[in-house]
Amino acid sequence: MSSAAEQEAVQEERAGEEHAARPAAVLNGRRPAAPAPPVWPGAPTPLGARFRTGPDGVTGTNFALWAGGAEAVELCLFDETGAEIRVPLTELTHEIWHGFVPGVLPGRRYGYRVHGRWDPWTGARWNPAKLLLDPYARAVDGDFSLPPEVYGHVRDWPQQQVADTVRDDRDSAPYVPKGVVVHDDDDWADDHRPKTPWADSVIYELHVRGFTKTHPGIPEELRGTYAGLAHPAAIEHLVGLGVTAVELLPVHQFAHEDHLLRKGLRNYWGYNSIGYFAPHAGYAAAGTNGQQVGEFKRMVRALHAAGIEVILDVVYNHTAEAGELGPTLSLKGIDNRGYYRLQPDARRYADYTGCGNTLHVVQPHVLRLITDSLRYWVTEMGVDGFRFDLAAALARSMHDVDMLSPFLAVIAQDPVLRRVKLIAEPWDVGSGGYQVGAFPPLWTEWNDRYRGAVRDFWRGALPDVRDLGYRLSGSSDLYAWGGRRPYASVNFVTAHDGFTLRDLVSYERKHNEANGEGNRDGSDDNRAWNCGAEGETDDERVRSLRRRQLRNLLTTLLLSTGVPMLVAGDELGRTQRGNNNAYCQDNEISWVDWELLEEPGWRALRDLTARLIALRHAHPVLRRRAFFSGRAHSADGLRDLAWFTPRGAEMTERDWYAPAATLGMYLSGRDIPGRDARGVPVVDDSFLAVLHAGHRPVSFVLPGPPWAERYEVVVDTSREDQAAAPGTAHRAGATVTVAARAVLLLRVG
């Protein structure tokens, strides 16, 4: 088109043809309206639906919606039969439409219709035929099924290249979930937050549904729910392991993508948020008409009572509305230009997330939405921290990632948020989006450099051990700046995205056929080694080697300086059958298989994991609060950290650059910086860890004085039964044989 006017003329012509082709009943699609209740002016704050006592002691609900640029807003109330009552909100304060409706009680379902221009070429996509979810809804009732009626444009328009410009006037209300008015009456007076220091934390990433779905100790009606995770049987496993925090995959209300629904699949992981205040209704056992809020709170209380913090994986970088061809569910219909980053061609969305859209966090009202949501989950839902999906997208100013961006600045000064745990996934898919090590001191980060180095070492792919040395000792090359500490690094070998730990040693290639995308989805860079056979095998030599590699990986993770993160089921040998992108597999592929505990080999792996975590909790030298200096602090020349070759000699600069499969790491418990709560210097045992990834045994000379007089074996991963390993003593200077592909941990005497 040569001009916007010509484009608009074509749009009107096409829209008129489309309207003429539809029966009037389809265009209207509405039940006869019931009498509207009175609406009083109410207040513009707080945003959302808040049940309260109004003038003259009358109870009701105050509704407030930011809708910049809108021409009118209708509040839509739904009764038990689904009948809709429309109430115009006529009060407008600073672009917030608001009103108090007497008699609207908790449990009432509602939504909005927002009126304005339909002009996609300028980014305006208002369409009052579409019922919109309140961005501040505290609970959501119903599922998103995504029929054509929920799209603001004519999805099946013959000329697909302009389909997003043709408005669809069919009513979406029968096909979309509704917000639910919730009564906030909980002051958390009986709750006691664990407040575990970062350095003492051990994180356990889990999926509410997948962790509990097949657990035999959880009543069947509670499996897959918040109540299931709160059940003593679930908490017993977490406490037995010794983890200090659960990191829950997204529990904000989310929607399933259309391409999955058409294949009979569902979004399992939940990285497709549409309600930033609402606990996902699909995980509630008690009901979805507001009961999910109380159930979530009871889950948090139960975990807190067990000493376990709750961290939420949150997705504020994009929403389930996708791009210009996506559905109109909430923000797109409230103010598309205000909520989303658009390209210079305003029909299109700036996509730094790979999901079709990116929230425009620079906008004050978008920033307010995010920070209001975060504070709500802390103050009213009791959570202890957040892991931010694709956090680099949130740190972008107009285009580039900016560590002085409004989002990071607001978090840094917020009196609530700056005191909780904040974890960044420090990348997005846009240009310049990889930002590992760059987030400011308040933040910790998922350290994928750690993941890569440890995987490569144990599969024999590291050219030397320089990178491994940095990762084992806290990644000072990434984080020793600006007052950051070793616990800025969240160390992980596996996460929800990618192979499980067992699959990492059982598959070299992804096997994602079940996802229905021709095995094209998922990463091809797995850095995996299958130990000699692809997939499951009856070869006991391969199976034994795989179990040893699992012990090596877990031991390395839990001995490393930084904050370790485990993935639910890895300690049991859970497999996804080689699927490294199981985001759409809500079935046995993704669920934790608790029957594995009945097998001695996998039960032994769980016991070793618990023993290593207990060792970590018992020894402050393994969870340092400051980086190693590598310098001697006493006349005998003993340093807080030293590295040794198999000859028992300290590594030289030349050794670091030479090919090697063995690394000795000495951690001095005598030189731990800092004091305890009473001001007493912290002193601990010293340890020598020998990591050997070679395929043959190696002779290792144990360093003599001043490093040690004798050594005692604590862990030997070459042994299936760890009960036989501890206690074996060796004198300093002795030569010990470290088995092929094994970790030997010795306590210094």
TrEMBL record:
Span list, region Disordered: 1-54, 512-532
Pfam families found in the cross-reference section: Alpha-amylase, CBM_48
UniProt KW keywords: Glycosidase, Hydrolase
GO biological process: glycogen catabolic process
Composition bias, Basic and acidic residues: 11-21, 512-527
Keyword hit for Methyltransferase: no
Domain called Glycosyl hydrolase family 13 catalytic: residue spans: 205-616
Record-level Gene Ontology MF annotations: amylo-alpha-1,6-glucosidase activity
CDD domains according to UniProt: AmyAc_Glg_debranch, E_set_GDE_Isoamylase_N
Composition skew (Pro residues), residue ranges: 34-44
Family in the record: Belongs to the glycosyl hydrolase 13 family.
Name used for this protein in its record: Glycogen debranching enzyme
Species in which this protein is naturally found: Streptomyces avermitilis (strain ATCC 31267 / DSM 46492 / JCM 5070 / NBRC 14893 / NCIMB 12804 / NRRL 8165 / MA-4680)
Lineage: Bacteria, Bacillati, Actinomycetota, Actinomycetes, Kitasatosporales
Gene responsible for this protein: glgX2
